[in-house]
Amino acid sequence: MGERRKVLLTGATGFVGAQLFPVLQASGFDVVGGTRNVESAKKKFPGREFVQMDIADARSVREALRHCSAAVYLVHSMAAGGDDYERLEREAAQTFRSAAADEHLERIVYLGGMPPQGKPSRHLRSRMTTGEILRGGSVPTIELQATMVIGSGSESFRMVRDLAARLPVMVLPRWAESLTEPIAIDDVTFALAHALQHAPAKSRAYPLPGPEKLTARDILSRTAGLMGRHPRMYGVPVITPKLSSYWIRLVTRGNHHVTDELVEGLRTDIVAPDEGYWKLCPEHERQPFDVAARKALNGEESDLSTGAILLETAIDRLSPKRQS
Q1: How far is CA 286 from the centre of its chain?
Q2: Interacting residues of 110 by C-beta distance below 8 A, sequence separation 6+
Q3: In the chain, which ranges are continuous DSSP H helix?
Q4: 185 and 149 in contact (C-beta within 8 Å)?
Q5: I need a labelling partner for 268 at 20 to 30 A (CA). Which of 6, 22, 90, 124 fits?
Q6: Could you give the CA distance from residue 82 to residue 150 in angstroms, rounded to a whole number?
């Protein structure tokens, strides 16, 4: 694997893909991003190479993979909403697995979700199924399983940031005490690039935990503290994740379909049984939560100016209509 290889990066314009692109280039790969709209992608990321690829079209996937020796799979359908996104993600994984085999790829690296301690949400179940499908093919596939990824542009962190920025008082249900291991986007991109070159040749799934075990309460409190805010937090055991997602919709800017699924996934602890993939690269020092969160906040600082307007809109929605 010493020679420079060509890698197809799917989801190249998304949160993880956009930040992974230059990391792969710096690691010695020739990178081409797979996207449905090449012209739009080139305008957003000038200087990067893109190829047309529709994950629902097997022919376009094979064409995109041609002349590539490896691929990073970052395809998600959850943000589009609808009840059939699990089916869409299964079919996408099956299409990609077959095309990768046809084009004789050496390796696939997939960023999935870490299995929870209890029953998985639909989102996590779909992520886990995708990993099983890819690892079940003939092309060796390394699956890295993460929880919340901390970075500018992350839907899950944006939800946390908006809540911490806009609410002076938070009513936290019991699920806010569930444990997770958030991880910095810089650590995720390092691991994905590393797995393309150094992971074992056989298909395998590895947890990708962050360096700290934190509750949702911890994450909200520490994020607020980094912003100079100290909201009061009160525990209320009777609020369900479904009910919580309704009021979160009112005060956050994230995709509502994604928000609902992410909150549903907080019902149970999501922690790794061990260091997972980090045992293969012990020299890498993961970023503490506060460092990763501060970098993410700095990256999205300009967006916070719209917070007051959105909060006023949320309050107006909850207020009784005035009689004229």
Answers
A1: 17
A2: 72, 73, 74, 130, 131, 134, 141, 142, 143, 144
A3: 15-26, 38-44, 58-65, 85-102, 122-135, 155-166, 185-198, 216-226, 241-251, 256-264, 289-299, 307-318
A4: yes
A5: 90
A6: 26
User: In Å, what is the CA distance from 131 to each residue of 8, 83, 91, 142, 153?
Assistant: 18, 20, 12, 9, 24
Q: CA 96, CA 90: separation in Å to the nearest integer?
A: 10
How many C-beta neighbours within 10 Å does residue 181 have? Answer: 23
**What pTM was estimated for this model as a whole?**
0.85
Residue 1 has pLDDT above 50, yes or no: no
Which pLDDT value is given to residue 128?
A: 94
Kindly report, residue by residue over 202-228, the tens digit of the pLDDT.
999 999 999 999 998 899 889 989 989
Please calculate the CA angle 16-277-62 and round it to the nearest 5 degrees.
Answer: 50
Which class for 238: exposed (0-12), middle (13-18), buried (19 or more C-beta within 10 A)?
A: exposed
CA dist 153 and 297 (Å) reads 10
Please state the φ and ψ torsions of residue 21, each to the nearest 5 degrees: -50, -55
Question: Do residues 99 and 65 lie in contact, with contact meaning Cβ atoms separated by under 8 Å?
Answer: yes
Residue 46 burial (CB count, 10 A): 7
CA atoms within 13 A on the CB side of 306: 9
Report whether 89 contacts 25 (CB < 8 A): no
The amino acid present at 6, given as its one-letter code, is K
Sign of CA dihedral 183, 189, 192, 194: negative
What pLDDT, in 10s, does the model give residues 142-190?
999 999 999 998 888 888 888 777 766 666 666 678 899 999 999 999 9
